[in-house]
Amino acid sequence: xxxxxxxxxxxxxxxxxxxxxxxxxxxxxxxxxxxxxxxxxxxxxxxxxxxxxxxxxxxxxxxxxxxxxxxxxxxxxxxxxxxxxxxxxxxxxxxxxxxxxxxxxxxxxxxxxxxxxxxxxxxxxxxxxxxxxxxxxxxxxxxxxxxxxxxxxxxxxxxxxxxxxxxxxxxxxxxxxxxxxxxxxxxxxxxxxxxxxxxxxxxxxxxxxxx
Length: 211
What we know:
Helix content is 42%, strand content 15%. It is α+β, with helices and mostly antiparallel strands. The chain has 2 domains: 7-114, no CATH class; 122-209, no CATH class. A 5-stranded antiparallel beta sheet has the order 4-3-2-1-5. The model has no long low-confidence stretch (mean pLDDT 88).
């Protein structure tokens, strides 16, 4: 069991959003840690019955049931639709990735987001685009982000904040970026496609070598 992905868990209400804790893998165990501020808050509620607030750190050989329940079952008729929405392979087995995408939001108030030590910014996007040697228009086409939104991100405007979260996933997971590239292959020149694919495959190989 190897995974470098860390998820931040939040609790969202109509007008508030507070950090609850982090979910990650350490060697052969899933780990969940409540934040100190949340655990000692009078209004805190446990993420689930298996994740009591009586202790801040929980450890399990398998994904905690409270999180597992958030991932739609493959037998769900809408499973393919969920995967398509986030460009996730229907056979994807990375449970943390599934939580961060198709399981991100559900019937409870708890939501999941990929956690980095720093916020993904327009500069991170710019480095990603330039690493792929893509024009703004090509980037918009390949990753299905409206051109006007990409232009706003280029100018560091707030309009592109939501799109940045999706771009961060493509930047972090070359496999998903390749999937999106292949989906939109008919929309770009074959030579451009080959160059972008080569770079993304190189990023994927590098990422896998670090696991």
